[in-house]
Design goal:
Blueprint: H1 22-37, E1 50-55, H2 61-72, E2 76-81, H3 93-100, E3 106-110, H4 114-123, E4 128-132, H5 138-151, E5 160-164, H6 169-177, E6 184-188, H7 197-210, E7 214-217, H8 220-224, E8 229-232, H9 244-251, H10 258-261, E9 268-271, H11 283-286, H12 293-313
Parallel strand pairs: 1-2, 1-3, 3-4, 5-6, 5-8, 6-7, 8-9
Helix pairs in contact: 1-12, 2-12, 3-4, 5-6, 5-12, 6-7
């Protein structure tokens, strides 16, 4: 199979999908599809490339898929465990960036503070990928939307994506990307748990340009009506463990169960995992025929391989580093 074209990609980093165009995202899908269809034919695509994996948070999918992904493309990964010593505690983040750029070709950071991803991107001369921050989870959104792209034979435009639960980092990255692809998006959260205001404003503008709808409601049944895909996530994310009981009481009416799914238009069920059966979703929905959660988990591997290939092979002299505009969504 022909090697996918990874040249002339307009981004140096993936800190956020806010500035990625629909064409950029579709290009990830195309490269990922080619790598997925012919893994053996691309074993040397990133031959000799080295990736640093900086992780402040526990991980199954992100760590495995980046590590295996770079190996499958001919490179290698080094894991830096920062779960007990936060970034910037022993050495400044800029100094870390300047050290790592001398040794590796790409940095993946999974961190509690989005500003640390931006600092790495600002100071490192090599590409930086946001493997998850408290604000955004762009790699997850790419895998989510790639999976829907597969399921619907590339026809995302006009579909209704509904996110129910906490307006968290996963929700934010879906908001950055889905409207650009022509999807109508409804976010359903309890009062006080809405998405970040600046993220919503960015998404509203993207929806306006694309001619699609972006709505917010606190009524799960209203949100689910006519949905083609329903997404939820845990009620308490990492770092919010002390709020678990409080959040469980607030979100109890936002559980995705069989009754709620009956309001949809035969929707797919989506979740970034790990999931808690009996809390944000019932076992019957998570393990049922509409669930595509493990297809999404698989596509984390392929989408991230595509991101690494595009960032490592697509650089041109005019490729922009992380834009100051990204700072606008971090408040």
């Amino acid at each position: 199979m022909k090697t996918p074209d990874c040249t002339h990609f307009p981004h140096q980093d993936l800190a956020s999908l806010a500035e990625w165009s629909a064409e950029d995202i579709q290009r990830v899908f195309a490269v990922a599809a080619a790598l997925k269809a012919d893994p053996e034919g691309h074993r040397s695509l990133l031959d000799g490339k080295r990736v640093a994996l900086i992780f402040e948070k526990d991980s199954l999918r992100t760590r495995m898929t980046f590590d295996l992904g770079i190996q499958q493309l001919g490179g290698s990964a080094v894991y830096l465990d920062h779960r007990h010593e936060r970034l910037g505690a022993r050495e400044s983040v800029p100094d870390m960036a300047h050290n790592l750029e001398r040794w590796v070709d790409l940095i993946v950071a999974r961190t509690y503070r989005h500003r640390h991803v931006l600092e790495l991107a600002k100071h490192a001369s090599v590409p930086v990928v946001n493997g998850l921050s408290e604000l955004l989870h762009p790699c997850q959104a790419l895998a989510d939307l790639m999976t829907l792209h597969e399921k619907w034979d590339g026809q995302l435009a006009g579909k209704k994506l509904v996110y129910i639960g906490d307006g968290n980092n996963t929700c934010h990255s879906l908001l950055h990307a889905a409207p650009k692809l022509g999807m109508n998006v409804t976010v359903c959260t309890p009062e006080g748990y809405e998405p970040n205001f600046k993220v919503m404003e960015t998404a509203r503008e993207a929806a306006r340009v694309a001619g699609v709808t972006l709505e917010h409601t606190s009524d799960p049944q209203e949100a689910a009506t006519g949905a083609h895909a329903v997404y939820t996530d845990v009620w308490a994310s990492m770092g919010q463990e002390d709020e678990t009981e409080e959040r469980a009481a607030v979100f109890i009416d936002y559980q995705v169960d069989e009754d709620l799914m009956s309001y949809t238009d035969d929707a797919f069920f989506m979740h970034c995992l790990p999931a808690h059966r009996g809390q944000e979703v019932t076992a019957g929905v998570l393990d049922g025929p509409a669930s595509i959660v493990f297809d999404i988990a698989e596509n984390r591997l392929h989408a991230q391989k595509a991101v690494m290939a595009l960032l490592l092979l697509g650089q041109t002299p005019d490729t922009n580093a992380t834009s100051p505009a990204l700072e606008e969504v971090t408040a």
